[in-house]
Amino acid sequence: MYAARPTPPDRITSPQNPRIKEVLRLQEKSAERRRQGLTVVEGARELSHAQLAGWRVAQLLLCPELAGETLTQALQAAPPAGELLLVSAAVFAKLAVRERSDGVLAVLHTPRRTLADLQLPANPLVLVLEAVEKPGNLGAILRTADAAPAHAVLVGDPRTDLYNPNVIRASLGGIFTVPTVAAPMPEVLAFLQAKGIRTFAAALAEGVNSYTAAHLAGPTALVLGTEADGLTPATRQACDETIIIPMRGQLDSLNVSVAAAVLAFEAVRQRGQ
User: Fold this and answer.
1) How far apart are CA 267 and CA 198, in angstroms?
2) 261 shares a domain with 181
3) 57, 121, 187, 207: which is deepest, by most CB within 10 A?
4) 104 and 120 belong to one structural domain
C-alpha cells in the first residue's frame, strides 16, 4: 500500500526502483488494483478531470524533461495532495503507454461506487453495457456518455476492470466525468425498474422498432451487449422494448461503442437538447 513518505532529494533514475515496480504492477494487474484500491492515470488533462471529480491522488510522478518548465514548476510548487516523485525520462518511458506523453502520471484512489450512490435527475439518460470486455470499447463509450451527455454508465457483469489504465486512456478522462458503476446485471435491471427508467435493448433482431421510432425522450436506459454475442436472452427479455439500428450495407452490426453513440445522440435529439 502507498503511504506518505518523504520525497527523495534526487529524482528516480532506475526503472528497477521498487517504487517504479509498484506502479508497473498496478498498471498491469487488475487483481493488484482491486487489492489496493488504486489505479494509474497518465496525462495532466486526465489528472485534472480526476481531481475535479474528487478522486484523491496517492502519488504523482513527474518527469521535468517531458512536462515542460511551466508545468513542472506548477506541480512542484503545489502538487496534488499525495506524494510527489521526480523521475528521469528513461524511467518515465518505462511507465508511459502514450507515444507523446506529457510527463505526468498519477496513482489514484479508486472510488467504491454502488448503484445506491447514484444521484440521477428526474429524466435520466443511462447507458447500460452487459459483459463488456474490451477496455477500448468501454473507454469510447464513456467519451460518448460525457459528450451526449448521459447521466450514468452502468456495467453489468463486466469482463474488464473499470479502472484499467487502458479504459482511462481511451475515455480521455470520461471515467471521471460520468458516474460509472459495475454490478451484476440482474441488479442493474432491478435498479432501473425501481427508478421507473424504461429499458431499451439494442439488438439485431428483425421485426422490431428502428431506434428512431422509439420514444427515448423520457427516462431511458439504452442497453447494449457484446459485439460477439449481443445481449443475453435473459437481459433482452427483461427489457421493456427492443430496438434496432438498421444496417443498410452487407455487414450486420456496428462496433458497440459506435452503436452506443448513435443511440445516445438520438435520445438527446428527441429531448431537444
Assistant:
1) 12
2) yes
3) 57
4) no
The DSSP secondary structure of 165-227, one letter per residue, reads HHHHHHHTTHHHHS-EEEE-HHHHHHHHHHTT-EEEEE---TTSEEGGGS--SSSEEEEE-BT
Over range 241-247, report the average pLDDT.
93
Residue 39: in which H helix or E strand, if any? strand 38-42
Question: Which range of residues forms the domain containing residue 82?
Answer: 18-109
Question: Using an 8 Å Cβ cutoff, are 41 and 168 in contact?
Answer: yes
Domain co-membership, 145 together with 41? no
Shared-domain flag, residues 120 and 252: yes
CATH number at residue 233: 3.40.1280.10
Give the tens place of pLDDT for each residue, 63-96. Answer: 999 998 888 888 888 778 889 999 999 999 999 9
Question: Rounded to whole angstroms, how far apart are CA atoms 24 and 22?
Answer: 5
Examine the domain organization and report whether 77 and 135 are in the same domain.
no
C-alpha to C-alpha distance for 137 and 140, rounded to whole angstroms: 5
CA angle centred on 226, ends 224 and 232, rounded to 5°? 75
In this structure, is residue 100 part of a structural domain?
A: yes
For the chain, the domain total comes to 2
Residues 6 or more apart whose Cβ sits within 8 Å of residue 193: 199
* pTM for this model (two decimals): 0.90
Domain end: 86, 109, 132, which one?
109
Give the tens place of pLDDT for each residue, 185-226. Answer: 999 999 999 999 999 999 876 668 899 999 999 999 999 998
Confirm if 104 and 47 have CB atoms less than 8 A apart: yes
Q: Which residues pair with 73 in a beta bridge?
A: none
Q: Is residue 152 part of a domain?
A: yes
pLDDT-based confidence at 100, cuts 50/70/90? confident
